[in-house]
Amino acid sequence: MKQVLITGGCGFIGSNFVRHTLEHYKEYRLINLDKLTYAGNPGNLTDIENSPRYRFVKGDICDADLVRKIFAEEKIDAVVHFAAESHVDRSITGPAEFIRTNILGTFTLLEAAREAWLKNGDSTGKEYRFLHVSTDEVYGSLGETGAFQETTPYDPRSPYSASKASSDHLVSAYFHTYGLPTLITNCSNNYGPYQFPEKLIPLVINNALQGKALPVYGDGKNVRDWLYVIDHCEAILTVLHKGKTGETYNIGGNSEKQNIEIVSTICDILDEKVGLLPGEKARRSLVTYVKDRAGHDRRYAIDATKIRTELGWTPQVNFAEGMRKTVEWYLDHQAWIASVTTGAYREYYEKMYGGR
Ligand code: NAD
Ligand code: DAU
């Protein structure tokens, strides 16, 4: 049995990864270290919390003593590092926590892995892996054409992407300087179950269900490359199993959409599934253009040739199917939405969007 330390396993991608891996990869035991910030919810994993191949530890990745203790106690073979402050808008209004968690937290994990796997000597002959989950946002913003490749120079533009870029550089430095067996993945926008409703897709689903305004930043024509979350989880597992240490792999859905297309698609699926709003109003009428995000990256697109040709990964869920599944999931889990949109969320929402 391999012992894998998962960080941030109670968040959106982390909880999907934990559930998917426990179900499909019986050779793993997962130790989930999560601080349970506003974005982390133990309720995301109630269905698997009693699995003998799962342990939850509530704690901070910046707590060096705790992280060291976990490596010693659990004899960790691999790390899959998701924990981060992940929302661009929050990084604009409060960057400090992004610097702490995303940079110092990653550094703390790297040091613990170095100590456990390299510094103290190791005669087990095991093959260790430190997989750092990162983002396409480190590459900056594209014009009308082109796509990010692994060789594209870093050009982060928000405190969030700058903190992720810093953490990527640290991971890479630990490979070159100490020979730590690292892997980096840079993925495009994910969507699917359990995404916190501060992000575009779940926020729009939630508001559209309630007949509230759908805030679209700027002209609504910014482009993101969308990937269903389970496809991302499978890509991470592929890199964990077959990736070459020291390498970076871009992951994307080959599914570029303007934000306004995303919002319109959600409105149409909901109109069809739950009926029009009172007065026979289509949900598209709720679209409200609001002030643009500061430094808003115009377009992201991923060239995933490397992971496809070298490791054999391709996305399995197309956008239309993925969006339908996602909207259905939120419709079936309205109690989940209610449980994560309580006081602190309402305060955040009020500050971001005012009375809309
Ligand atoms: P999320 O915000 O939903 O979850 C983050 C999780 O990390 C939460 O459970 C939170 O409690 C935990 N966490 C935060 N700070 C912590 C700390 N100091 N110590 C321990 N745990 C802490 O994020 P997500 O959307 O699931 O993203 C996961 C990772 O994937 C991030 O590193 C993000 O940069 C990366 N990523 C996300 C996307 C996307 O579209 N969501 C795309 C590419 C890459
Ligand atoms: O590209 C990968 C990144 O995708 C991840 O690294 C981040 O963690 C993740 O949050 C996501 O970042 P984005 O900023 O692209 O995602 P978000 O859902 O916040 O916004 C998607 C687009 O929609 C973006 O162009 C901003 C716009 N938007 C967002 C919100 C919340 C709106 O127009 N209105 C909104 O209310």
Output the structural class.
Answer: alpha/beta
Ligands, deduplicated: nicotinamide-adenine-dinucleotide, 2'deoxy-thymidine-5'-diphospho-alpha-D-glucose
CATH superfamily (homologous) name of one domain: NAD(P)-binding Rossmann-like Domain
Q: What is the highest CATH level, the class of one domain? A: Alpha Beta
CATH hierarchy: architecture of one domain: 3-Layer(aba) Sandwich
Widest sheet, order of strands: 3-2-1-4-5-6-10
Mean pLDDT: 97
Number of strands: 12
Task: Identify the quaternary structure here.
Answer: single chain
**Which segments are poorly predicted (pLDDT under 50) over 5 or more consecutive residues?**
none
Cα gyration radius (Å): 20 Å
Note the total helix count: 12
Major β-sheet profile:
7 strands, parallel
Task: Determine the N-to-C terminus distance.
Answer: 51 Å
What is CATH's topology name of one domain? Rossmann fold
Helix content: 40-55%
Beta-strand content: 15-25%
General form: globular
H and E order: EHEEHEHHEHEEHEEHEEHEHHHH
